[in-house]
Amino acid sequence: MEVKPKPVQRKPLEWFNLKGKRVGFWAYVVMRLSAVGLVLYLFLHLVILSQLAVGPAAWDNFVALAKSPAVLLLDVVLIIGILAHGLNGIRLTLIGFGLGVPRQKLMLWIGLILTLVFGVLSALAIFAETK
Amino acid sequence: MVEKQLTRERTSSWSWILQAFTGALLLVLLGLHMVVQHFVVEGGLRDYQQVVEYLSNPFVFLLEVMFLIIVTWHALLGVRAILFDLGLQPATERKVTAILSIVGVITIAYGIWLSATIVAQGA
């Protein structure tokens, strides 16, 4: 009789139990935390865009606020979150379809490097723009 | 028991495929959104008048609505996966799916209404 393995289920508190975990688990934690952050951001984004329905003054006030250094720093955090989540998502999708499984760890490092490279480039672009 | 397990597996596999599919679309849609809404714009953000003019272009409107639908779908599928990992009863799982579907429809409807309102303000 074939016994099917139960699907892995982890409650959110277990995301933070990193003791003795392999690097793939770190990727899982980054994926989940960035996911939560991006979902919250999506709804925040829609709330902020609602200022456009209020009128020109409301929106242009927000634009002024959005150009303050603190908000620009949050933009960099957002872009790094998107890059990490998206690039790891490509890796997980490939693995899910059975592609590149032996190279899954290499793909993880490539994703990390691309996240850092594009994160730094975005930060430079963002802060250069508003000078 | 065996039947329940099979159902669960089928459920998790369709949601996984959808998550991967919407994720792949987001590589294009979010990439385009970031470039056309922020990276090519002087100062990174359009002022009110520029937003109204820009969104009045039907192609831009369509692109943003597609992005809204796919990103909301992807986000809520992700929330669903995290909630399902709590080890919910099948009845609770069905409720979660139903509630998140409603949240998704409302979110998308609101986004489309907002976009249409912005365009109407320019008309």
- Specify the biggest β-sheet of chain A: none
| Quaternary structure annotation | heterodimer
Q: Mind telling me the CATH class of chain A? A: Mainly Alpha
Helicity level of chain B, as a percent range? over 70%
Helix count of chain A, per DSSP? 5
Integer-rounded radius of gyration of chain B? 18 Å
Mean pLDDT of chain A: 88
Explain this structure.
The complex is a heterodimer of chains A (131) and B (123). The radius of gyration of chain A is 19 Å and the shape is elongated. Chain A contains 5 helices and no strands. In chain A, 16% of the residues are buried. In chain A, helix 1 crosses helix 4 and helix 4 (69-96) packs antiparallel against helix 5. By secondary structure, chain A is mainly α. Chain A has one domain (21-129): Fumarate reductase/succinate dehydrogenase, transmembrane subunit (3 helical TM bundles of succinate and fumarate reductases). Chain B is mainly alpha-helical and 123 residues long. Chain B has helices spanning 2-39, 48-55, 58-84, 90-122. Mean pLDDT of chain B is 89; it is low at 1-8. The chains are: A mainly alpha (131), B mainly alpha (123). At the A-B interface, helix 1, helix 3, helix 4 and helix 5 of A face helix 1, helix 2, helix 3 and helix 4 of B.
